[in-house]
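wait is this the right file?? whatever heres the structure
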């Protein structure tokens, strides 16, 4: 449906149009912009008048409906000559997509450019502007030669001579929001690059484009939270099923391993302890298998355990690809862990907070550790909006966990590290 403000402005200007004949820069005459095409035809048939003899109500040099973007390039040439460019746009998506084209940035930063959009399209403009900037980062930085730095804010919405002609006078707020979105994207450029450089194996496993895989990974925290809140599993069986079924779990793990500043520190500590004590080692809740791979490549006797599903399949594929003979234990019981024999070391990183009755699992670990065996754990018993999967009923363990572990029979060994807890079966 044609935008009313677009129509009203065009109608008001059509009466003046014959006088503006010589000032026209360009038009897009596609089907989406038939009004512009109509004016262009009217102009072509009009009798020209000497521009110097005319007083314009709207200091108008060009009326541009963006079709394939060529009109913007013509306008850019006009703007460089000091002309005032007015853009009336229905196709907000087309306009926003055009913003990522580096060669029109000067046009859109020029304060002589006046942009008119329908109020209903503001949200679409903001959304598509964000994705246009994201596309620019993809094409010019992540997938490019990495010499570009960041996109510009690119859009200035400038007041015109008549307050009736504009849809909002809150240009500063609109531009501030665009700039905030731009800055958030710029802040994530290093993570985009890190994830993109490290996600080829996952993209190949999923048969998915690397850039799309990168975006799934970077949005995985939000997507996991949304998926959890939509499903709202309430008991151990439903929670276990959710982890087996959710498509976002695998992306969240890969993103954490690619971008976390603490993860390399944790891996270094775990590797040193495992190399010192050695023996039979279990990675419980091993996710995408990243830690198990690192330990196996050190020549350690590591076993992997997690719930069935795509993430476990991916871990197994990664083991096979590297020729690593890592035993895989499938945790298919939602209420307990079925382990066989005794271990010298059990590792469970960022797992306990997700479990119904985590202390029961700690008892299982205790019973499957040899005397003097070690449990390396990193629970985060904090429930928040970003991590609703951290069960709220486990928050009480933030203060009680040490005492409860001692009641089970563990002795805490102080590693003097905020990243890892070490417990010994005595």
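ok assuming it is, sequence goes like this
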């Amino acid at each position: 449906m044609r935008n009313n403000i677009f129509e009203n402005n065009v109608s008001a200007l059509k009466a003046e149009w014959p006088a503006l004949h010589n000032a026209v820069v360009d038009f897009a005459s596609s089907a989406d912009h038939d009004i512009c095409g109509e004016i262009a035809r009217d102009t072509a048939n009009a009798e020209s008048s000497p521009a110097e003899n005319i007083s314009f109500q709207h200091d108008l040099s060009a009326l541009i409906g963006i079709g394939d973007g060529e009109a913007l390039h013509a306008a850019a040439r006009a703007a460089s000559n000091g002309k005032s460019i007015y853009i009336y746009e229905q196709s907000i998506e087309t306009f926003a997509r055009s913003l990522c084209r580096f060669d029109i940035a000067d046009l859109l930063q020029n304060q002589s450019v006046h942009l008119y959009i329908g109020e209903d399209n503001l949200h679409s403009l903001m959304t598509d502007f964000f994705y246009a900037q994201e596309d620019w980062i993809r094409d010019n930085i992540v997938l490019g030669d990495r010499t570009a730095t960041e996109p510009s804010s690119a859009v200035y919405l400038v007041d015109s001579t008549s307050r009736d002609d504009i849809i909002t006078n809150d240009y500063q707020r609109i531009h501030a929001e665009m700039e905030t979105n731009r800055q958030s994207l710029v802040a994530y450029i290093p993570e985009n690059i890190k994830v993109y450089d490290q996600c080829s194996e996952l993209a190949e496993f999923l048969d998915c484009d690397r850039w799309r895989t990168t975006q799934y990974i970077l949005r995985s925290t939000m997507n996991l939270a949304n998926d959890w809140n939509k499903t709202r599993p309430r008991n151990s069986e439903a929670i276990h099923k959710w982890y087996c079924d959710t498509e976002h779990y695998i992306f969240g793990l890969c993103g954490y391993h690619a971008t976390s500043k603490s993860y390399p520190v944790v891996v270094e500590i775990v590797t040193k302890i495992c190399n010192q004590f050695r023996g039979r080692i279990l990675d419980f809740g091993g996710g995408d298998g990243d830690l198990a791979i690192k330990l196996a490549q050190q020549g350690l006797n590591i076993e992997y355990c997690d719930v069935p599903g795509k993430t476990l399949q991916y871990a197994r594929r990664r083991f096979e690809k590297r020729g690593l003979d890592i035993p895989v234990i499938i945790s298919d019981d939602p209420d307990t862990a079925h382990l066989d024999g005794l271990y010298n070391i059990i590792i469970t990183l960022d797992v306990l907070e997700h479990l119904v009755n985590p202390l029961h699992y700690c008892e299982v670990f205790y019973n499957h550790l040899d005397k003097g065996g070690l449990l390396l754990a990193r629970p985060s018993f904090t429930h928040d909006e970003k991590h609703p999967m951290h069960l709220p009923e486990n928050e009480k363990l933030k203060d009680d966990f040490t005492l409860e572990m001692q009641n089970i029979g563990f002795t805490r060994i102080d590693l003097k590290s905020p990243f890892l807890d070490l417990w010994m079966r005595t």
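Residues 4-187 form one domain. so i think its the right one actually
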